[in-house]
Specification:
Number of domains: 1
Number of strands: 4
Helix content: over 70%
Strand order of the largest sheet: 1-4
Strand content: under 5%
Order of helices and strands: HHHHHHHHHHHHEEEEH
């Protein structure tokens, strides 16, 4: 897939985001993927052989969406359809909008901030302080810049429409069944492992973009040092780079389902008394990186043309 097509998709996403008038009338492709996963999980995730069944679900999704994407690209105007689909599946605009909504809610009240951040994170938010709400929002920005923007764009560039469709399906499956719980440990094993694999390069590319775009060798060194310490093999890289660029502490203790989990701070010497201004700053970071990524896509398009 050409770099020019990727640049066009990135710009289209930035201009339109996720228009309510469209997705209030039609299901978003990721919603359709989620419904399919839910339907299959309800029928397969029981009895013996759960890991094999979960692997079969992933294989079915990969083959089906790969064939679909391959076929669409070969239709008349297939490349244009691919650009539109990629723009729908890349989430730069919506990521920034959701984060800024949390910042604006925090400016109104802590309660409003908690309600807003609960829409984008899975941890308990009812007792969060303002710095905890802020950290949760910025961590979401950093992690989702990698797996919601750079990763789908990367796989679109590598493998066109089949690549981005397969990536989004695996990423969606991981978010739904890739948990280390009794229900999903075996059934979601393949989805979780494949998601880790598909995000390996994009996570490190995201950290590199954050560091390079802000002239911070320290941010890259922080990603290399602290990224592997994260509970995820990939999310810690952009998170560590973001923490260093903003000079704030991220991660740290949090609560899930009423239980406290004591995670170490990333960049612990950074500021901890943070608020909506730091969320705005994190959004500015990913938009600066977005411009750089546009330039990279255009350069690739020029080199291979």
């Amino acid at each position: 897939m050409s770099g020019l097509a990727l640049a066009a998709a990135l710009v289209l996403d930035a201009l339109l985001g996720e228009p309510r008038w469209l997705w209030d009338r039609f299901p978003h492709p990721v919603v359709l993927m989620g419904r399919a996963i839910t339907w299959l999980e309800g029928r397969l995730n029981s009895g013996a052989g759960r890991r094999l069944k979960g692997t079969a679900l992933v294989a079915l999704g990969v083959m089906g969406l790969g064939i679909l994407g391959w076929g669409v690209e070969r239709l008349p105007l297939g490349e244009i359809v691919g650009v539109i689909a990629a723009a729908i599946l890349i989430a730069q605009r919506s990521l920034s909008d959701h984060a800024r909504t949390v910042a604006n809610a925090l400016r109104m009240s802590l309660r409003a901030g908690r309600r807003s951040v609960a829409m984008i994170v899975g941890r308990d938010t009812r007792e969060m302080s303002e710095p905890e709400v802020t950290r949760a929002a910025i961590e979401s920005v950093a992690e989702n810049f990698s797996d919601g923007v750079i990763a789908p764009a990367f796989w679109y560039l590598v493998a066109g429409l089949p690549g981005i469709l397969i990536y989004k399906a695996i990423n969606t499956a991981d978010s739904m069944i890739g948990y280390r719980t009794e229900q999903y440990l075996e059934f979601g094993w393949a989805a979780a492992r494949l998601d880790d694999l598909l995000n390996w390069i994009p996570a490190r590319l995201s950290a590199a973009l954050i560091a390079i775009c802000h002239g911070s060798g320290a941010a890259w060194r922080a990603a290399v040092m602290d990224g592997p310490k994260h509970r995820s093999p990939n999310a810690g890289w952009p998170e560590a780079a973001m923490a260093r660029v903003l000079n704030i502490a991220l991660s740290g203790p949090r609560h899930y389902h009423g239980r406290r989990e004591d995670h170490p701070f990333v960049h612990p010497s950074g500021a901890r008394d943070i608020g909506p201004e730091e969320i705005d700053a994190a959004c500015a970071v990913i938009w600066r990186c977005w411009w750089a990524f546009i330039g990279l896509a255009l350069s690739i398009g020029w080199l291979v043309s």
